From TrEMBL:
Signal peptide region: 1-25
Protein name: TonB-linked outer membrane protein, SusC/RagA family
Record Pfam families: Plug
Phylogenetic lineage: Bacteria, Pseudomonadati, Bacteroidota, Bacteroidia, Bacteroidales
Presence of keyword Signal: yes
Keywords for the protein's UniProt record, in alphabetical order: Signal
Keyword Signal: yes
TonB-dependent receptor plug domain span: 53-129
Length: 938
C-alpha cells in the first residue's frame, strides 16, 4: 500500500515536469500576501494575530539550515512555543516536522497566534500553528543558484572535575563526615598525584585530547533550479549536509552525520479554468556512531575507578592464566592492551567504543502532494474550488555490528622494584561476531486530504466579500516495529469542516467569522462532535477623516477577536471515559467463609459525559506605520482560558472511599481544571538611511503570565494550593544556611530527609509545626518552562555599499531555575566537580559555599531550595554574518549572474550573571559555530 503511493507520486511528479502549462501570476505583489489557513490575505487586510518571516529574503543575509531560523529574534510571542503553548507545524498545509525542511527550501513562514487564526485547522491546531510555505517556480528563464558553506564547531566550555588524587582525598573526608573508615590510603593518593603509573593509579579525564578533538567540522551544499513560462513554473532544490563528531576515540573516529535532500514542484495550467500543482520531496539521513554512552558516563564515572586499558608488557609472563587471557583475547587493542574494568563495570564507554561495534542509523522520508484548483466563475463569478491530497512516508532502521567483550580487573604488585600485574580477574564473555544485523525498524505514514470552495467578490467598488467552505483531515499511523507490533493503538487523526466568511468596506471596516465542526474518537458517543466559532473585527482608523491631519501616522489599524475552540490535545489517550480493571501488579483478596481468592482491582471509573477541552480567548491588536514609514508596530493583548482540563484526583469532588489505594481507584477522569494565559506581545522595527548606510533595527518581545484558575486538589496549608498561582510556579524550600553544630540542629525544627549533621542545609519551618517536610515547600518563582515572564528578541541589518552586516539575538528575564545537575549535586560515589572546593568543614564554616561532603545520596541537601536557585536572565547573540555582494558588472559577459561571499557565526555570546552555568553542559558540550560560504547565481 505504501509503496503504491510512492510509485504513483513519483510517476505523477515526473510526468508533470514535462507538462506544458502555465499558472496565472497574482495581481498583487507576492510580498504583500500573507499565508493564512487555507488561503492568502493581503497584508493590509490581515485582521488576525499572524506574524510572518520572509525566509527567502532572510537567508540572503544569514546562513542556516533550520527552517525556523530567526523566529525568536523576529517575532513577538514566539519562544519556541506560541504564547506559551506548543504549536502544530504544517509544511505546505501538511503536518510535518520542521526538521524535514531546510531553510533554503522555505519561501516564508506564518506564525498563527490567536485562536481565530487557527480555528479552521481543527482540534490539533488549537494551540497555534506554524505554517511553513516552500519555494515555487517563477515566470522567468531558468535560474541556477548554488550555495556552499563550511564551518567549525568549538566547544564553549567543559565541566571541571577533580583529578583522582583530589577526589580520593575529598572522598575520605566524606567518609569521615559520615562516621565511616577512610577508603583510600595515603600511598595510593600520593602515587596518583605524582602520576607514577597511570595504569595502576588511573586518572581518567573524559575531556582530554586523548578522546576529544579541539573542534569538529560541518559542510553543506545546496543547488536550486527554477523558472518557467506562461504555461509551467518549476522549482528544484537539492542539497547535502555533512558533519563529523567531537569524539575521536575508537569507532567514534569514523562517526558522521550526513543528510541528502531533493525537493521539487511544478505548477501547471491544464486548461484556462483548471490548474494543477505537484510537490515531492525526498530526505535521506545516515548516521554512523560507536556504541556506548560516553557523554552520559562522563559526568558520573569516578576518575580513579579503573584504567580503561591494561598494558600487556606490564603483566607477569610467568602467570599462565594471564598469558592465556592474552592469547585468547578477541579484543587485544593495538596488540598492546587488554580492556580494563571491574565486576560492577563489566562494560564501560571506553571499551564500548573500542570493542563493542557500531550503529548505522538510516532514515528515509518521502513527501508527496498533489492539488487541483478550478475557476468556477462560469457558474458563479468569484467562485473557485481547490482540492489537495498528500502522503508522507518515513522509515527508520539501523544496521548494527555488536560484539560482546570481556574486561579484566588487575592485581598489582612490586616485582623486582617494578609495578607488575600479577593476576587478572575476567568479567563478561569475550566473543567475536563478524555479522552485521538489522536493528530497530519503524515507519510511519501521514495522509492528508482537503477540499474547499472559495468565493471572493467586490461589489460597487467598496464592498469586499470573501468566503471559504472547506473540509480537512489527516491521519498518521506509526506502524509495526521489528517485532511486528503496532506502536499506536489508534492512529493520530484530525478531521473537521470549516467555514470562513469575511467582509470589509473600503479596506476600512472589517468583520470576519470562522467556524469549524470537529470530531474526536477520544470521547464517548454523543460527545464526539463540537462547533468552534471565532469572530474578528477590524477598523483602519487612519482612513477616517479625523485622522487626515495626523501626519506622523501613515497607517493605523486596530483589531479584536473572540473565539471558543474545542480540542482533544490535552486528552492523553483513548477510552479514558471507560472504567477499567486490571489484574497486573495489584489484587484485592476476598473471602466467603473459608473459600476465597484474589480479584482484579479498578483503575478508574466510568464517565460517559467526558467532553472536549475548550480554549476561550479574547485578543486585541494594533498595526501601525509611523513617521513616514520609519517605524512599524504590531502588538497584541491576549487572554485565554482553557477549561475542562482532565483530572482524576482524590478530592472533594468524589467521596474519598472511591480511592482504594495508591494503585487502585474508582475515580473517573472528569473535565474540571482550568488554566489562564494572558499577555502582551509586540514587534517594532525601524528603517533609516544615513548617507551610504541603510540601517534596520527590530525589537520584539512578550510579557506573559499564567494562572491556575481551578484545580482538583487537597492540601493542609493554604500556601500549598496551586489554584491562583502561575502554571509554571516552582516550589522548594527556603534555605537558612548551614547547620553549624549539633546544638544548632537540636534547636531547629526536625528535618525529615535522612540523618542531618553539621554542614547540612537548614530549611525554614514555614508552617511552624516543628517538622520540616513537604508541607514546608513554597512558591519560589516562575520556572518559565512554557514561556518566561518577559522574553525579547533583537535583529539588526546594516548595509553599506556592497557590504551587509546582520545580527540577531534573544533573551529573557523573570524566570528562576535550580543548579541541580550532577555537576552540582555530587551524590554518593559520583565524581566531584570543582564546586566542592567551597564545601563546609569545621575550618571553613564561616565562608562555606557548599554543603558538607557525604557518601550518601544527600537526601537533605539535594532538594530544590533557595540555596540552589538562580535567576535565568540572559541575552544571547544567536547569529551574526557579514556578507559582500560583488557588483553586478563584475561578471558581465560571463555565465555568472551574481556572487556573494560571507562569514559568520552561531551561538556566539551569552550575557548573563550566570553565563558560566548557562554555557555548561555535563553531556555533549555547547559549541560556537564559525562558518564561511558563498552563493552564486547562474
Amino acid at each position: 500500500m505504501n509503496r503504491k503511493f510512492i510509485y504513483i507520486g513519483c510517476t505523477v511528479f515526473a510526468m508533470s515536469l514535462f507538462h506544458a502549462g502555465s499558472i496565472q501570476a497574482q495581481e498583487e505583489n507576492k510580498d504583500s500576501l500573507v499565508n493564512v489557513a487555507f488561503g492568502t490575505v493581503a497584508q493590509k487586510d490581515l485582521t488576525h494575530a499572524i506574524s510572518t518571516v520572509n525566509t527567502s529574503e532572510l537567508t540572503k543575509k544569514v546562513n542556516s539550515s533550520s527552517s525556523l531560523v530567526g523566529l525568536e529574534s523576529l517575532i513577538g510571542g514566539y519562544t519556541g512555543s506560541i504564547w506559551g503553548q506548543e504549536a502544530l507545524i504544517l509544511v505546505d498545509g501538511v503536518p510535518r516536522s520542521a526538521s524535514n525542511v531546510r531553510a533554503s527550501e522555505v519561501e516564508n513562514i506564518s506564525v498563527m497566534k490567536d485562536a481565530a487564526a487557527v480555528v479552521l485547522y481543527g482540534s490539533r491546531a488549537a494551540k497555534g500553528v506554524i505554517l511553513i510555505t516552500t519555494k515555487r517556480g517563477k515566470n522567468e528563464p531558468m535560474h541556477i543558484d548554488v550555495r556552499g558553506n563550511a564551518g567549525i564547531n568549538i566547544p564553549k566550555s567543559y565541566p571541571k572535575y577533580l583529578d583522582s588524587d583530589c577526589y580520593m582525598t575529598l572522598y575520605n573526608e566524606a567518609c569521615r563526615n559520615d562516621g565511616l573508615s577512610e577508603k583510600y590510603n595515603t600511598s595510593d593518593i600520593y602515587n596518583t598525584a605524582m602520576g607514577a603509573n597511570p595504569y595502576r593509579y588511573p586518572n581518567i579525564d573524559f575531556y582530554s585530547s586523548d578522546y576529544l578533538r579541539k573542534a569538529y567540522y560541518n559542510a553543506d551544499m545546496t543547488g536550486e533550479v527554477y523558472g518557467g513560462n506562461e504555461r509551467t513554473h518549476y522549482y528544484l532544490n537539492f542539497g547535502m549536509d555533512y558533519s563529523n563528531d567531537l569524539l575521536k576515540y575508537g569507532e567514534s573516529k569514523n562517526a558522521y552525520n550526513m543528510r541528502f535532500n531533493v525537493r521539487g514542484n511544478v505548477d501547471m495550467t491544464l486548461a484556462s479554468w483548471l490548474k494543477a500543482t505537484t510537490n515531492a520531496a525526498i530526505v535521506y539521513t545516515n548516521q554512523y556512531a560507536g556504541r556506548g554512552n560516553f557523554w552520559g558516563v562522563a559526568s558520573t564515572l569516578r576518575p580513579n575507578w579503573f584504567a580503561p586499558l591494561l598494558p600487556i608488557d606490564m603483566m607477569d609472563t610467568n602467570v599462565s592464566q594471564i598469558q592465556e587471557y592474552i592469547a585468547n583475547s578477541n579484543h587485544l587493542i593495538d596488540g598492546k592492551y587488554l580492556l580494563g574494568g571491574t565486576s560492577s563495570d563489566m562494560t564501560n564507554p571506553f571499551a564500548d567504543l573500542l570493542a563493542a561495534g557500531y550503529v548505522k542509523e538510516k532514515a528515509r522520508m518521502f513527501m508527496f502532494d498533489v492539488s487541483l484548483a478550478a475557476d468556477l466563475g462560469s457558474l458563479l463569478k468569484g467562485l473557485t474550488f481547490k482540492t489537495s491530497y498528500s502522503v508522507d512516508y518515513t522509515s527508520y532502521y539501523s544496521e548494527a555490528f555488536k560484539e560482546t567483550y570481556a574486561v579484566y580487573e588487575p592485581t598489582w604488585a612490586q616485582v623486582n622494584g617494578k609495578d607488575m600485574i600479577v593476576a587478572l580477574k575476567k568479567h563478561n564473555e569475550d566473543k567475536k561476531d563478524p555479522n552485521e544485523y538489522i536493528g530497530k525498524s519503524t515507519y510511519d505514514q501521514t495522509m492528508t486530504f482537503s477540499a474547499q470552495f472559495d468565493y471572493a467578490r467586490t461589489f460597487e467598488k467598496f464592498h469586499n466579500v470573501a468566503a471559504t467552505f472547506m473540509g480537512w483531515g489527516y491521519q498518521t499511523q506509526k506502524s509495526a516495529d521489528e517485532n511486528h507490533e503496532s506502536s499506536d493503538y489508534h492512529r493520530t487523526s484530525n478531521v473537521n469542516l470549516g467555514l470562513r466568511a469575511s467582509y470589509n468596506y473600503n479596506h476600512k471596516y472589517y468583520i470576519d467569522f470562522n467556524g469549524a465542526v470537529i470530531h474526536s474518537a477520544k470521547l464517548p458517543e454523543g460527545k464526539r462532535n463540537a462547533f468552534s466559532p471565532a469572530v474578528t473585527l477590524g477598523w483602519r482608523i487612519s482612513k477616517e477623516k479625523f485622522m487626515e491631519n495626523v501626519d506622523f501616522i501613515n497607517d493605523l489599524k486596530v483589531t479584536a477577536s473572540y473565539a471558543k475552540l474545542h480540542q482533544d490535545l490535552d486528552i492523553s489517550n483513548y477510552y479514558l471515559y471507560k472504567g477499567t480493571f486490571s489484574k497486573e501488579g495489584y489484587y484485592v483478596q476476598w473471602h466467603d467463609g473459608t473459600a476465597g481468592g484474589w480479584t482484579p482491582v479498578s483503575k478508574r471509573g466510568d464517565n460517559p459525559n467526558l467532553d472536549f477541552i475548550t480554549r476561550k480567548e479574547f485578543r486585541a491588536g494594533i498595526d501601525a506605520t509611523l513617521f513616514n514609514r520609519l517605524l512599524r508596530l504590531n502588538a497584541n493583548y491576549f487572554k485565554q482560558d482553557t477549561k475542562g482540563l482532565l483530572t482524576q484526583g482524590a478530592s472533594f469532588i468524589h467521596p474519598a472511599y472511591f480511592a482504594l489505594g495508591s494503585n487502585s481507584s474508582f475515580m473517573p477522569w472528569i473535565n474540571y481544571n482550568e488554566d489562564r494565559r494572558s499577555g502582551f506581545d509586540f514587534s517594532l522595527s525601524a528603517n533609516k538611511k544615513f548617507g551610504d548606510f541603510n540601517v534596520t533595527l527590530g525589537f520584539n518581545g512578550m510579557v506573559y503570565s499564567s494562572e491556575a484558575l481551578r484545580r482538583d486538589e487537597l492540601y493542609d496549608e493554604d500556601y500549598q494550593f496551586r489554584k491562583g498561582r502561575a502554571l509554571d510556579a516552582s516550589y522548594g524550600y527556603v534555605c537558612e544556611g548551614f547547620f553549624q553544630d549539633q546544638t544548632d540542629i537540636d534547636n531547629h525544627a526536625r528535618q525529615t530527609f535522612g540523618t542531618v549533621k553539621p554542614g547540612d542545609l537548614k530549611y525554614k519551618d514555614i508552617n511552624e509545626d516543628g517538622v520540616i517536610d513537604n508541607k514546608d515547600q513554597i512558591e519560589l518563582g516562575k520556572n518559565g518552562w512554557a514561556a518566561p515572564p518577559f522574553s525579547f528578541g533583537l535583529n539588526l541589518t546594516v548595509k553599506w555599499k556592497n557590504f551587509s552586516l546582520f545580527a540577531m539575538g534573544s533573551g529573557q528575564t523573570g524566570a528562576i531555575d535550580y543548579k541541580s545537575s550532577s555537576y552540582y549535586w555530587n551524590r554518593g560515589t559520583s565524581k566531584f566537580s570543582e564546586i566542592v572546593w567551597g564545601r563546609w568543614t569545621e575550618e571553613t564554616k564561616d565562608v562555606a559555599t557548599y554543603p558538607r561532603l557525604t557518601t550518601t545520596n544527600g537526601d537533605n541537601n539535594y532538594r530544590n531550595s533557595t540555596f540552589w536557585m538562580y535567576k535565568r536572565n540572559y541575552f544571547r547573540l544567536n547569529q551574526a554574518q557579514l556578507t559582500y555582494d560583488f557588483p553586478e558588472n563584475t561578471f558581465k559577459g560571463t555565465f555568472i549572474r551574481g556572487l556573494s561571499v560571507y562569514c559568520g557565526g552561531n551561538n556566539l555570546l551569552t550575557i548573563s550573571k550566570e553565563r558560566k552555568h548557562l554555557e555548561l553542559s555535563t553531556g555533549s558540550p555547547q559549541c560556537r559555530n564559525f562558518y564561511a560560504g558563498f552563493k552564486a547565481a547562474f
